Amino acid sequence: xxxxxxxxxxxxxxxxxxxxxxxxxxxxxxxxxxxxxxxxxxxxxxxxxxxxxxxxxxxxxxxxxxxxxxxxxxxxxxxxxxxxxxxxxxxxxxxxxxxxxxxxxxxxxxxxxxxxxxxxxxxxxxxxxxxxxxxxxxxxxxxxxxxxxxxxxxxxxxxxxxxxxxxxxxxxxxxxxxxxxxxxxxxxxxxxxxxxxxxxxxxxxxxxxxxxxxxxxxxxxxxxxxxxxxxxxxxxxxxxxxxxxxxxxxxxxxxxxxxxxxxxxxxxxxxxxxxxxxxxxxxxxxxxxxxxxxxxxxxxxxxxxxxxxxxxxxxxxxxxxxxxxxxxxxxxxxxxxxxxxxxxxxxxxxxxxxxxxxxxxxxxxxxxxxxxxxxxxxxxxxxxxxxxxxxxxxxxxxxxxxxxxxxxxxxxxxxxxxxxxxxxxxxxxxxxxxxxxxxxxxxxxxxxxxxxxxxxxxxxxxxxxxxx
Length: 468
Ligand code: ADP
Ligand code: ADP
Ligand code: MG
Known about the structure:
Blueprint: E1 5-8, H1 12-24, E2 28-34, H2 41-45, E3 48-53, H3 64-74, E4 78-80, H4 90-98, E5 102-103, H5 108-115, H6 117-126, H7 142-152, E6 156-164, E7 167-172, H8 175-193, E8 198-202, E9 208-217, E10 221-233, E11 236-242, H9 249-265, E12 269-279, E13 284-291, H10 298-305, H11 309-317, E14 334-341, E15 343-344, E16 350-351, E17 354-355, E18 358-360, E19 367-371, E20 378-379, E21 386-394, H12 397-409, E22 412-414, H13 420-428, H14 430-433, H15 442-449
Parallel strand pairs: 1-2, 1-4, 2-3, 4-5
Antiparallel strand pairs: 6-7, 6-8, 9-10, 9-12, 10-11, 11-14, 12-13, 14-21, 15-16, 17-20, 18-22, 19-21
Helix pairs in contact: 4-5, 7-8, 12-13
The structure holds adenosine-5'-diphosphate (2 copies) and magnesium ion (MG).
């Protein structure tokens, strides 16, 4: 193991998660933080902490120079980027490596290649992985776009090559829609991601979002089975589970093998996720993108395979080979993760910060709560609204759901509105109990479940999520 100290270049629950993994491996931790995060749990847990800038993420967690300076000054030999922020920024990964430090993730070349969603589609096709019918490469102008949509048919999605976090996607039902959206999408993508490049995909209706967890050491790659994340709001995941109950055994095998083929084709190193849409009617699955980092919902996989993915990615970055062979990875039971956000489902998911007055966390066998919270903690208004993740395991899906319902019943976070009430309703819903859902299930469901909700026209500036 060549890593003896690492810098945590993130905040919130994932910073806490990384510190726990590092401690288990005997690695010293240095936590960076903004001026608004002096009291965060990860700062208290780390061996040392360094303030790197003002509350604005652009000037702190996204400031490559400031993060790198902290890494060099603190004498760590590696940097863990977590998710969001700089985790998929190839320039950051390169800067870390150029400075003689270890970036805990794939090579910067792999990040650039797979982080460009158009290039990633090409990689998938070359590896023999089915992709969603759509454009061949980027679509540079409206005329080229018209030719594509006439061939594949409506509805279509106009997607930003550099998009992420559910942003940079528009649906066009008709040619008129398409002609209106296309120029706007390009301008928006340029403003949001610094890259106006667009591509087109056919809309797969009533699809399930199924994704495969992969691990690679640059020589070999394996999968750790799949997670299903079909319950989404604004294309952001709300509830994730594994394994997906919708997959017949042969489809599961083909899906997981295709993710490994893709990972092997690029000599992938580290933890990653290959995302797909699965059409239950036809039994077909289609690649959509690769996330070259640890994902929010990684604990689902940890609960059903017993693998510590964060420890494994740190070990690999330190030069170790994979500690598991494919045949060592076994599925055991079922796990569900509920994202607990500082958002009020009864008020159109209005985000709101606050001080944690009481905290009653459910405990017991098969129950895990990954969080940044403690009593008295003041949730700052500047960042993503994720407060924590409740992950529950059961020996099968029904047992898992029953345990989840019990855990949610006794779960109390006082001082601010959270999405706990939403998860209570989901866990009790008949369709959810049957796993009878798809990616467009949740939004109309919410209109019935929370009828008084006044829709928030746009994300309130206070909790606007910053990325990249
Ligand atoms: P992001 O990079 O923002 O995560 P993705 O390409 O992974 O974007 O898509 C996010 C979500 O948008 C998917 O989980 C799915 O719900 C929806 N989506 C994306 N592409 C399609 C498609 N071609 N057809 C239907 N839904 C799609
Ligand atoms: P994951 O499956 O890990 O959630 P996403 O691509 O959906 O993958 O999001 C990754 C991370 O990006 C999130 O956990 C969060 O830190 C950040 N993020 C999510 N949604 C947004 C958003 N709307 N705007 C900016 N960043 C976001
Ligand atoms: Mg995605």
